[in-house]
Design brief:
With about 150 residues, the protein is α+β, with helices and mostly antiparallel strands. The chain is about 40% helix and about 20% strand. The chain has a six-stranded antiparallel β-sheet. Strand 2 (about 40) and strand 3 form a beta hairpin.
């Protein structure tokens, strides 16, 4: 994947829209951590620190943004109170951290599959197709407008 600085504004918007759709689909669904992965945790003062999280803990999807390396970063809140407010992971490691997240996402969106990164790519593709179809419809409506060229 390209760095964020190498992407066009419309590509950034497309990726961020896909991230938002995924967060909305997963909102309220507990995602259980497997193992003891490290996460970039965000404190209430805005500072970050790498910390391990415990297997069996549940997190809830809260936000997504496109990171500097061009990876979608998902911010999740812990179910139980912690010293930090959010923990963040790249879409590329979501399956390692939350093995059931892909299946839960597929079910929420009515898609096939269980791999989170592949499902993320599917959502990006769907968003791109929606955008292209909207542009085609707008051009067609413009061309078919009986008032087109009348001035």
């Amino acid at each position: 994947m390209k760095k964020r600085s190498d992407l066009k504004p419309e590509q950034i918007t497309l990726l961020e829209d896909a991230g938002k759709e995924i967060v909305e689909a997963l909102r309220g669904i507990p995602l259980e951590v497997e193992g003891a992965p490290k996460a970039a945790v965000k404190y209430t003062d805005g500072s970050f620190k790498m910390k391990p999280v415990m297997g069996g803990w549940n997190f809830f999807a809260e936000y997504a943004y496109l990171g500097k390396k061009g990876e979608m970063i998902f911010g999740l809140t812990p179910e139980d109170a912690q010293e930090y407010e959010f923990a963040e992971w790249s879409h590329k490691v979501m399956d390692e951290v939350f093995p059931l997240a892909g299946g839960q996402l597929a079910k929420a969106l009515g898609l096939e599959g269980e791999n989170f990164a592949i499902l993320f790519d599917k959502v990006v593709t769907m968003k791109g197709e929606e955008l292209l179809n909207a542009e085609k419809r707008a051009k067609q409506e413009y061309a078919e407008n009986p008032n087109f060229g009348m001035f």
